[in-house]
Write a structure and sequence with these properties.
The chain has four helices and 20 strands. With 301 residues, it is mainly beta. It is globular, with a radius of gyration of 19 Å. The structure holds ligand LBFN2T5F.
């Protein structure tokens, strides 16, 4: 099978062309492809398909073989793939990507060689109604925003964490930590240096990913406010910790705005780099960031 490898801020994906012959992968095959020792290695697989009324359909599969509705870093890479393959006119600077979560309009910049560098994706309106995220947390009424599960405490073996539930087409549980010192020592790889960087996110993230409050599981973000904006780490549903998550950055920006921690436009810094997120007055979240091609190859399935 031929493949190409792309990434958005180090959140990396194996692209497979499914525009001709249908490509159907079993969860075992996806697991093998994404395995960093025995396979190619990636956070997920994107099968590129044709779409009626759009420039292409992004079929996104997490590294554990589960299907996800949307992937923010993935959709910027998808745009670059379509440009690289001449499937859209590079000079138009615009395309429409179809996803399981619906259409996502994208504006992009190209360099002197016509290669896409940066894209701004219209990520749609965040879904805040708890039942639609979906999450079973009680919601508080937030005026014209309706009922939002905002900073609702969920207990864990390390004590309670307060989550805001936001769907960007896929579910996210965002926790802002304002006081790292108050947290259990066991949550950190180094109790002398409690903070976002030393948080044992593999353990605490995995615990909340499968919590009963999230019937479709959830992506889990831990975040803090910085002078530059917001900094976060993410434990992705169906994958584990990744260097970046586009939908997670959008959900975190929305949660920051809802809880009075940030303005509607904010820079979200992740392990792999920064994304510019804006929750527009029209309710639509826009995400701007890079996408990069790494290499291509052939693998025996
Ligand atoms: N890395 C992605 C999100 C990928 C899907 C996610 N793990 C899920 O299951 O919802 C992004 O950049 O948004």
């Amino acid at each position: 099978m031929e493949f190409e490898k792309y990434n958005g801020l180090g959140n990396d994906f194996i692209f497979i062309d499914g525009t001709g012959e249908a490509v159907e992968l079993t969860p075992q095959q996806v697991g093998f492809l994404c395995d960093r020792h025995f396979g190619i290695g990636a956070d997920g697989v994107i099968v590129v398909r044709k779409a009626d009324g759009a420039d292409g359909y992004m079929h996104y599969i997490n590294s554990d073989g589960s299907l996800a509705q949307m992937c923010g870093n993935g959709v910027r890479c998808f745009a670059k793939y379509l440009v690289d393959h001449g499937m859209v006119d590079a000079s138009s600077g615009r395309l429409l990507a179809m996803t399981l979560a619906g259409p996502r309009p994208i504006a992009f910049d190209v360099d002197d060689e016509g290669k896409m560098t940066v894209a701004t994706v219209e990520m749609g309106q965040p879904i805040l109604e708890p039942a639609e995220v979906p999450c079973l947390l009680p919601g508080a009424s937030l005026g014209r925003l309706g009922t939002v599960a905002c900073e609702q405490a969920i207990d864990s073996p390390w004590g309670p964490f307060a989550f805001t539930a936001v769907s960007m087409g896929n579910p996210h549980a965002v926790c802002f930590v304002d006081n790292w010192q108050a947290l259990d020592d066991g949550l950190f790889t180094d109790a002398e240096r409690k903070g976002l960087d030393t948080l044992r996110i593999d353990e605490v993230g995995a615990w909340y990913e499968s919590h009963g409050a999230f019937p479709q599981k959830t992506n889990v973000e831990f975040a803090e406010v910085t002078p530059e904006g917001v900094r976060m780490r993410v434990f992705e549903r169906g994958c584990g910790e990744t260097l970046a998550c586009g939908t997670g950055a959008c959900a975190t920006a929305v949660a920051a705005c809802l809880t009075g921690r940030a303005e509607r436009a904010v820079t979200v810094s992740l392990k792999g780099g920064a994304l510019a997120i804006e929750w527009g007055e029209d309710g639509v979240v826009r995400m701007t960031g890079p996408a990069a091609f790494a290499f291509s190859g052939t693998i025996q399935l």
